[in-house]
Amino acid sequence: MNNQFGGGYFGTPPITKNLIIANFIVWLACTILPIGDAIREYGMLYWVGSDKFHAYQFFTHMFMHADFSHMFFNMFSLWMFGRMLEIDLGPKRYIIFYLVSALGASMMQMGVAYIEWLSVKARLAETAAAYGVSAAQLANQVFTNYAMLGASGAVMAVMMSFGVMHPNNMVMLMFPPIPMKAKWLVVIFIVIEFLAGVQGSTDGVAHFAHLSGMLWGWLLLRYWKKTHQIYY
To answer: What mean pLDDT is reported for the chain?
Structure first.
């Protein structure tokens, strides 16, 4: 790792460092402050048909995390892969990359939620007619607490882009602790996320958001490469 930011290998460029600090501060606020639950409640991204939805949540949700492990693994991955990517892209392109990937991920997840909402709406049509209400209203009630939070979409995009730009760099997995080329790590994650998403995993993870984050990140890299703004 280039040591221009100090600290040798552990040196961290400013955007990556500030993103990690911001996420940690928000997690700390949600954990220790009396209004912590309210901060998380207002910051999560709710289903657009929910009374709890606000447009600003497309931005704030990426700084919210369910618990310490959720925040830690996201920020550790961001630190691990984001440092070199920020140097490769430059701070301006890097923050654009991060935000676009996060927003793209959340929009994709809302698209998946809409498909699920349509299915629920169709199943509730007869019940709605019996009670004299619209099926959409009942479906919205079911989805009132449908929400997503976390930086995972952007972090997965950062990891993917590191693998694209430095495919043969060796990375050390945490579980299991084995070395692997970055390109194979990306392939493994894509396969896992795709299979979990298609199978409708009920683990509470927004798998299609992760895939969408990686897709938007890849599209940005291709655009910048095609316009000769970056080289790899």
So the answer is: 89
Q: How many CB atoms lie within 10 A of CB 187?
A: 13
14 preceded by a cis bond (ω within 30 of 0): no
Q: Is 43 exposed, middle or buried (0-12, 13-18, 19+ CB in 10 A)?
A: buried
State the CB neighbour count (10 A cutoff) for residue 175: 5
Which is more confident, 170 or 201?
A: 170
CB 202 within 8 A of CB 145: no
Q: Given a cut of 70, is residue 230 above it in pLDDT?
A: yes
Q: What are residue 120's phi and psi, to 5 degrees?
A: -65, -40
DSSP string, 138-176: HHHHHTTT-EE-SSHHHHHHHHHHHHHHSTT-EEE-SSS
CA distance 11 to 101: 24
Average pLDDT of the segment spanning 173-189 = 84
Cα(123)–Cα(25) distance, integer angstroms = 43
Q: Residue 147's beta-bridge partner residues?
A: 46
Where do we find the tokens 């901060």?
A: 39
198 sits in which H/E element: helix 182-198
**R_g of the chain computed on alpha carbons:** 19
Q: Which domains does the chain have, with CATH numbers?
A: 14-226 (1.20.1540.10)
Residue 42 has pLDDT above 90, yes or no: yes
pLDDT at 206: 81
CB contact at 8 A, 24 and 86: no
Distance CA 231, CA 161 (A): 12
